[in-house]
Amino acid sequence: MKILAIESSCDETAAAVVEDGRRVCSNIVASQVEEHQLYGGVVPEIASRRHCEAVVGVTNEALKEAGVSMEEIDAIGVTYAPGLIGALLVGVNFAKGLAMATNKPLVPVHHLRGHIAANYLAHADLKPPFLCLVVSGGHTHIIEVTDYTSFRVIGRTRDDAAGEAYDKAGRAMGFSYPAGVEIDRAAQRGTPTYTLPRPHVEGSRYDMSFSGLKTAVLNLLNRASQKGEEINRDDLCASFQLAVCDILSDRLMAAAEETGAKTIVVAGGVSANSGIRARLSAECEARGMKLYMPPLCYCGDNAAMIGAQAYYEYQSGVRASMELNAVASLPI
Ligand code: KG4
Ligand code: ZN
Fold first, then answer.
1. CA-wise closest residue to 213 among 274, 153, 163
2. Angstrom distance (rounded) from CA 2 to CA 210
3. 266-302, pLDDT tens digit by residue?
4. Using an 8 Å Cβ cutoff, are 249 and 280 in contact?
5. What would the mean pLDDT of 78-101 be, rounded to a whole number?
6. Cis peptide before 105 (omega within 30 of 0)
7. FRET pair for 256, CA 20 to 30 Å: which of 49, 75, 109, 207?
8. What ipTM is given for this predicted complex?
9. CA distances (Å), 200 to each of 175, 196, 266, in order?
């Protein structure tokens, strides 16, 4: 079964053709990041406009690269939540129009479910149940994936997502948006010499908080500039990355122990982080747990992951009508 998938929840316009939820026939991503960099973050209005301009071309390219015509497509999958509402609406309305014009079934996909499904594209042997850490620019969740379409949230951030903390702390350190990958690179050159907090959340063993860590970086930079002291940026990045790794790994391993999970999966843009990948590899190996991580090309937003999840949603009977709307915020 071939699914054409569309993703437009943030600042990438993406389309892909995926066969049986596992085989990527094409995967096209048009990034707007250079334009948003001018403003230090994603400007929602600009994102919507760029999606409008790009969505038709990106979809045609995905069909062309897969070597298929619209007639050979069995269903259309689309990200409908969560994300920037105006950005989501472009993909949703485009997919609805295409589904109506071609008389194909339309399958709505939750963006975080898509991030998790990115792992199915690279790991043929991976199937639920497993415990998944989803870390992106907008979300940080520990989720028990009991089946392809059933999920139980065990822990989550109470404030900033891990990627958001990377981007905001990075901005204060003088990196351009999105700062995650740049902090990661600098961290690999530095030594974690600065003391930063690892906040605990009252009343929950599995919830996380990143805003205090971000603020600690901002305070440290402000104090240093007031006193005219030099900050070693590589060392600060290494210290920040170590704190993020400590928080994520502590909560994930506690959740694994609690649920008795033997298989751990990581997903989302921040799963590209070298420190997180190395730390979770070591922790899982020490506990005899199997760890799956997406290849770097499927960590960030893309439509292939939406095509993978759309297949399993379709198999479980999920279909959208022409009443489908975009939703900015929606639990998994
Ligand atoms: O999943 P994603 O592409 O978009 C959302 O759904 O949010 O994640 C984007 C986030 C950004 O915050 C970006 O800074 C972060 O992923 N990111 C990283 C790395 N690569 C991307 N964070 C830390 N280390 C990286 N190597
Ligand atoms: Zn995402």
1. 163
2. 40
3. 999 999 999 999 999 999 999 999 999 999 999 999 9
4. yes
5. 98
6. no
7. 109
8. 0.99
9. 28, 13, 22
User: Treating both helix axes as pointing N-terminal to C-terminal, what angle do 44-66 and 85-102 enclose, rounded to 10 degrees?
Assistant: 40
Whether 300 lines ligand 1, by a CB cut-off of 6 Å, is yes
- Tell me the two tokens of residue 159: 């404030």
Contact 331, 28 (CB under 8 A): no
Cα of 204 to ligand 1 centre, how many Å? Answer: 25
Per-residue pLDDT reduced to its tens digit, 155-195? 999 999 999 999 999 999 999 999 999 999 999 999 999 99
- Token readout for 209 is 């908080």
Strand-strand pairing, 75-81 and 2-7 = parallel
256 closest CA partner among 83, 171, 131, 154:
131
Q: Which domains does the chain possess?
A: 2-116+299-315 (3.30.420.40), 126-296 (3.30.420.40)
Measured from the alpha carbon of residue 137, the closest ligand is: 1
Sheet holding 75-81, edge to edge: 23-31, 12-19, 2-7, 75-81, 106-110
- Report CA 188 to chain centroid distance, whole Å: 22
pLDDT mean over 14-22:
98
Count other Cβ atoms within 10 Å, centred on residue 80: 25
* Distance between CA atoms of residues 285 and 163, nearest Å: 25
Give which of 302, 272, 251 is closest to 143, Cα–Cα. Answer: 251
* Shortest-distance Cα residue to atom 7 of ligand 1: 137
The closest of 84, 88, 91, 118 to 106, measured between CA atoms, is 91
